[in-house]
Amino acid sequence: MDRDFRQGYLEIDFATVRFASPLPLLRDSLRVFFSNLPFLAAATLVVYLPGKLATQFLCYLLDIPFAGLLSYFVLEISDLLLSALVLPAIIFGLVHRFRTGHAPALGESLRWGRRQWFKTLANQVKVEITIALWGALLVIPGVVAMVRLTFVDVVVAVEADLEPDVLGRSTRLAQGRRWRIFFVLLPMLFLDSAAMFLVLDRVGVANSRVAFALADSILAVAGQLATVAVLLMYLGTVQKRVTKLKP
Question: Which of 55, 71, 140, 220 has its CA 20 to 30 A from that of 247?
Fold first, then answer.
């Protein structure tokens, strides 16, 4: 994988499954997620757990309560900062697994995540602002913006130095596939909301900053199912060959 660092992008030189329907994509996403769960959990927790503990410690020092608008913004900022490192690392590791069939190296994956951190963060901020502005008009335009910008993180992680217009590239990839993308994302959003309600709103978690940070980090691991799904949609969109993915 040293060639990826030298050339500044991840080469997709393996066969993929064409993204033709949401149900097969969701099935493949679950299979890839669980077969790579040790790597996904390690890559997420090694960043999120200390990051979330530090966030809660900062909230404690500043006397920021669990509930409220200020707490929400602090958690959102921490999620952006942490995910900007974790997402490209995970995508790098999964591409390595698809390419070689072997488990990815955590250190090498995190090195790629660190390389792409600032570009990922900058584009995530653009995505958040775009969705918020469109969503302020009506719910549907916000959803449309979310769908067409679905591939932003993957484009940064895979195409890296090759693509300066990341949001435009995501929009072009989503063109003609928006309903399929929406029906892949919909169950992900539902599961994420249900998990947050069941875990983070529990009385025991809400009264302990350490427990809250731990639960938030575990939810981030579960949230990588969406990362897997978006990566598979991307690979099935940019590649024309149809075969069975490696686990």
Answer: 220
**pLDDT < 70: residue spans in the chain:** 1, 137, 197-206, 239-247
CB-CB contact of 18 with 242 (8 Å): yes
Write the pLDDT tens digit of every residue in 98-122.
998 888 889 999 999 999 999 999 9
How many residues are listed for the chain in this entry? 247
What does the chain look like in DSSP terms, one character per residue? -HHHHHHTS----S-B-----HHHHHHHHHHHHHHTHHHHHHHHHHHHHHHHHHHHHHHHHTT--SSSHHHHHHHHHHHHHHHHHHHHHHHHHHHHHHHHSSPPPHHHHHHHHHHTHHHHHHHHHHHHHHHHHHHHH-HHHHHHHHHHTTTHHHHHHHHGGG-S-HHHHHHHHHTT-HHHHHHHHHHHHHHHHHHHHHHTTSHHHHT-HHHHHHHHHHHHHHTHHHHHHHHHHHHHHH---B-PPP-
- Residue 56 sits at φ, ψ, to 5 deg, of -70, -35
What is the pLDDT, as a whole number, of residue 139? 73
Which percentage of the chain shows pLDDT scores above 90?
61
* pTM, to two decimals: 0.91
